[in-house]
Amino acid sequence: MKRVRLAMVALFGFMLFGLLAHTPTGPRVYNRGAPKRPVSTQGTRRDRPIQSKLATDPAAPSTAPTDPPPPADPLPTSTAAVTTATVEYPPAVRPSKPPPPSWGTLLLLPRTSANDSPSCLDGSPFGFNYRLSSHGSTRWTFTLPGGGWCHTLAECASWTSESLGSSKKWGEPGTGAGKGTAWGESPQGHSCEAADHNCVYLKYCDGGSFSGARPGSIVVPMPNKPNVTLYFRGLRNFDAAVAWALRHGLDRATEVVLTGISAGGLATLVHLDRLASRLPTGCRVRGLPIDGFFISRPSYLGQASRFEANFRNMVRTMRITGGPGGALPRACVADNPEAPEKCLLSAVLQSYVRTPFFLMQTKFDQWQLANVVGLPWSNCIISNHNADCNSTESTQQQPHVLTFARELLDDLAPLISSAAERGNSGFVSSCICHYRCPYGNLTMPSGGPSATAFFEAWLQGEPGANGRFLVDGSKYPNGDGALLKLPSSGLSPLYAQSCTPLSKNRAGTTN
After folding, report:
1. DSSP assignment string, 440-495
2. Contact criterion met (CB below 8 Å) for 115 and 215
3. Cβ neighbours of residue 242 under 8 Å, at least 6 residues apart?
4. Strand 198-202 relative to strand 127-131, pairing
């Protein structure tokens, strides 16, 4: 019995020792009425700050997204009636290798304010096609397309149903949508694409050569139709496109060419100095206006010039002004305070353009023969068809074709005589064409470089090209018939790409 009691005492002592050996030293705190679980004395989960491993471990990868810095205001503060706004542009697409020929990417700029956003005539977003260089080129080309002008409120209202007045007709953004090949309208635009430079093709939808600056909007009553609200933001459109480019490499540009055709050629002369003033010091800026030298003269019937009167209406309607907030050169407006529309006439405007440019022009401009001289499209000289050149009407009209050519050369004389001093050059053809003249292979009747080759030589500063104009001295159209070797395009008369076939019945051959 004694042995049994000693064994039980020893077993109890052993169990007590083991229990004491495994008891933790710190106190345990329990919540009353809650399940028996330990709670930190530092406070509850809601009370204490939450520490992330990313914030405390310097070796941890930072996968949390960061907010990008807010973009700058895309519009210049010097423009009149500008409301500062922050715009988030879609990211630019930069190809990893030279892309194949295409229309580029269509980008519509966001609308930031009802009073100052870049806009087409109908208030839809303005945009442009672009292609950025795949190898980081610092050379840029801006192309301004043509399309004519709308001179009155009613005419501009009618444009809102077309691609020239509304981006709703362009197609989907982010694609190559757009009417026609973006770069093919200009030899320099095509060269830009082929060389994998940075190319920007501004869409034309303001009706005023990118020059209108009327604040707000204006409602136009339409007979038997809903009223149309118009926006004249052409200058804002141009400035916004340049601002976008400055955010995507234009601020590091070493060479920039501004080119345009027809109404875009006139816009090139209007905006060349404006563009140059926004580029870095040392950047080489040049202009290439094509078929954009417009003159004012009475019609062949002796009527007053409709061209200048139309520009007068356009300047007033769209509020095209001079100075920092306007498109026209300030000095030109100061010299013509009673008639600022004269600053849109190329013969007047060219003398105020300080940045060197190369003029591609034909002295038998087909569009001007029809719309300035007033010759009907049935006239055999400008129709590019087998119209009757022996009719009494055509015979009476033919001398006016030659008179127009002489007057255009007279207006060009100051530009040509000052070319060496100002660094300008040019190529003046006798081809009857407009907008898509074949300057890529068009030479003087006696031969020599094509218009495009001569421009490239001037652009590269080759000896003999600077300060020099090549002018076709032929009295009659199409080099007196020597340019008939150019192939016919089969396009409509307004967009003829070849010189009009010239027979012995053509203008002036019997005079």
Report:
1. TT--BTTB---HHHHHHHHHTT-TTTTT-EEE---SSHHHHTTTTTSPP----GGG
2. yes
3. 142, 250, 275, 278
4. antiparallel
* One-letter identity of residue 479: G
Contact 105, 175 (CB under 8 A): yes
Question: What secondary structure letter does DSSP report for 100?
Answer: P
Which residue, chain included where needed, has tokens 């990868």?
61
What the block records as the tokens of 380 is: 């055999």
Q: Do 431 and 478 form a contact (C-beta atoms < 8 A)? A: yes
Please report the DSSP string for 353-390 in residue order: --S-BEEEEETTBHHHHHHTS---TTSHHHH-S---TT
Counts for the chain of helices (H) and strands (E), in that order: 15, 11
Q: Which one-letter amino acid corresponds to residue 483?
A: L
Query: What burial letters (b/e) apply to 114-132, b meaning 16+ CB within 10 Å?
Result: eebbbbbbbbbbbbbbbbb
Q: Are 180 and 133 in contact (CB under 8 A)?
A: no
Contact predicate 209/263, CB 8 Å: yes
Judged by phi (left if over 0) then psi (alpha if -120 to 50, else beta), residue 508 lies in: left
Task: Note the Cα 359 to chain centre separation in Å.
Answer: 19
Reading the chain (511 residues) residue by residue, the pLDDT tens digits are 555 455 555 555 555 444 444 444 433 333 333 333 333 333 333 333 333 332 323 333 333 333 333 333 333 333 333 333 334 455 555 554 444 445 578 899 988 765 688 999 999 999 999 989 988 999 999 999 999 999 999 999 999 999 999 999 887 665 444 433 444 456 665 677 777 889 999 999 999 999 999 988 999 998 888 999 999 999 999 999 999 999 999 999 999 999 999 999 999 999 999 999 999 999 999 999 999 999 988 888 778 778 888 999 999 999 999 877 899 999 999 999 999 999 999 999 999 999 999 999 999 998 998 888 888 776 666 665 545 555 666 677 778 888 999 999 999 999 999 999 999 999 999 888 888 788 888 888 888 999 999 999 999 999 889 999 999 998 888 777 666 444 443 333 333 334 543 333 333 332 2
d(CA 86, CA 88): 7
Nearest 5°: phi and psi at 240? -70, -40
**Count of Cβ atoms closer than 10 Å to residue 328 Cβ:** 24
Answering whether pTM is above 0.85, one says no
- Encoding tokens for residue 83? 């409301």
Strand partners, 225: 222
Q: Is 433 helix (H, G, I), strand (E, B) or coil?
A: strand
Copy the structure tokens of residue 165.
Answer: 């007045």
Question: What residues contact 466, with CB distance under 8 A and at least 6 apart?
Answer: 420, 423, 425, 458
The string of DSSP letters for 290-343 reads ES--------TTSPPPHHHHHHHHHHHHHT--BSTTSSB-HHHHHH-TT-GGGG
**Structure token pair of residue 357:** 């440019």
